[in-house]
Amino acid sequence: MSQQKPLYSLHYPSFSPFDRAALRQLVSRLTPGFTILEIGSWLGQGSTTVLIAEATKKQGIIYCVDTWMGNPNVERHQEIVRDYDVLGTFLQNVASAGGQRVVRTLVMSSEEAASIVRDSVFDLVFIDADHSYTATLRDIRTWLPKVKPGGILCGHDCEGRIEDFGRERLRSGLDQDTIRGNERFPDIHAGVITACHESFGDKHQLWAETPIKADDGSVGRSTIWFIQT
Questions:
Q1: Which residue, among 159, 217, 154, has the nearest Cα to 188 in the 3D structure?
Q2: Residues facing residue 179 across a β-bridge
Q3: 3-class DSSP state for residue 136?
Q4: What is the tens place of the pLDDT at every residue in 45-98?
Q5: Please, what sign has the CA dihedral across residues 205, 196, 50, 215?
Q6: What are phi and psi of 213, to 5 degrees?
Q7: Domain coordinates of the chain in residue numbers?
Q8: Which of the residues 84, 93, 130, 174 has an alpha carbon 20 to 30 A from that of 75?
Q9: pLDDT tens-digit readout, 121-159
Q10: Pick the CATH number of 17-160+201-224 from 3.40.50.300, 3.40.50.150, 3.40.50.2300, 3.40.50.620
Q11: What does the radius of gyration of the chain's CA atoms come to, in whole angstroms?
Q12: Rounded CA separation 41/165 (Å)
């Protein structure tokens, strides 16, 4: 019998206080009784906890979609998957956040989840899975039709626009999770930046361009992007 893997008890720094504030502002625009879908929930320490808090206050439901196998182009993900029970960690963090009643866990790929979901059913879809260009572009195209008219499609890790970094520089890192950034964002996600540009032109809005105040009063920038359908 194989030995059961332990839960991952460390903090995984992938969702900043400014990301939390930005996502909370987006969800605050939704009417009570909303339905949200999150693509890429990972350990449940970041965006999932924000969504749980808002859903609990406003009688919402959250569908969390993930394989819980980590992104193939992130070495640290693969190390954690090898050594820890990632899905068990997510479920424990959901329980600790009081999310058992509002979270519906779907252990499957983004494409598998989309195949069982009708169009125009979600008030908000949040994309934070594989950050490579191909995967991000596929997720945007797959889930945009699943958002209700007037709803919000949004995602994580878009640090700017094509012109902020240069097309050639971004092209060199489309398959990578991150490449070296600038003084504002030391690491940037070339795949996400490029996929958003190709999907929306400049119509998507970026919290990277607008300072936001975190809960502790500090002011910074989030990497969340969004567009209203």
A1: 159
A2: 188
A3: helix
A4: 999 999 999 999 999 999 999 999 999 999 999 999 999 999 999 999 999 999
A5: negative
A6: -95, 130
A7: 17-160+201-224
A8: 93
A9: 999 999 999 999 999 999 999 999 999 999 999 999 999
A10: 3.40.50.150
A11: 17
A12: 28
